[in-house]
TrEMBL record:
This is PTS Gat IIA. It comes from the Bacteria. SUPFAM superfamilies: Phoshotransferase/anion transport protein. Transmembrane segments: none annotated. Residues 8-154 form the PTS EIIA type-2 domain.
Length: 159
């Protein structure tokens, strides 16, 4: 199947629920594996996301729980995509713009975007979701089908 370079690829198998206690690296490697298998990102992508997070943390102190938006440079992306991790046992992450302040993250929105203007557009839409605690709780507690509908409607603006 040919991919439209401008379309952001997001399908049900790009949503992973982590029922057991985990850590950031495992979440990133698990989500990235799905994108690598679909040839949406380069094999180096997960390592680059983890390295970037060490220097530029992406934890956001949203209510009622924290979220994270890990990503890396566009050169590691083949096609635009999103992968979401739902964490039943939160992980600690450093807050964006901080050196050491930490938050407990329950949802990871991993972004693979090939253009910075696309990143800004998606980040803006994500912020709209993050500012509504009901949206976050709904995403965390919903089925993969429901999460797919929410993300497609709010972020990707599909019907």
């Amino acid at each position: 199947m040919a991919l439209n370079d401008n379309k952001i690829r997001f399908e049900k198998d790009q949503i992973v629920t982590f029922n057991e206690k985990t850590n950031f690296d495992h979440v990133i490697n698990t989500l990235a594996k799905v994108l690598i298998e679909k040839d949406l990102v380069k094999p180096e992508y997960p390592k680059q996301v983890i390295l970037r997070e060490q220097n530029f943390p992406t934890g956001l102190p949203t209510n009622p729980f924290g979220v994270s938006i890990p990503h890396t440079d566009a050169k590691w992306t083949k096609h635009n995509a999103i992968a979401i991790g739902i964490l039943k046992s939160p992980i600690e992450q450093v807050v964006m713009g901080s050196d050491e302040a930490k938050i407990r993250v329950e949802i990871v929105f991993m972004l693979a975007l090939d253009k910075s203007n696309k990143q800004l557009n998606i980040l803006s839409k994500l912020m709209n979701i993050f500012q509504d605690p009901e949206n976050l709780v709904k995403i965390r507690n919903s089925s993969k089908d429901e999460i797919l509908k929410i993300v497609n409607k709010v972020i990707l603006e599909e019907k």
